[in-house]
Amino acid sequence: MTLKVSCPQCQKTVIWQASSEFRPFCCKRCQLLDLGEWADESHKISVPIPVDSAISQEMLDAMEDDILLNNNFFVEPE
Ligand SMILES: [Zn+2]
Question: How remote is the CA of residue 41 from the centroid of ligand 1, in Å?
Answer without folding.
Answer: 20
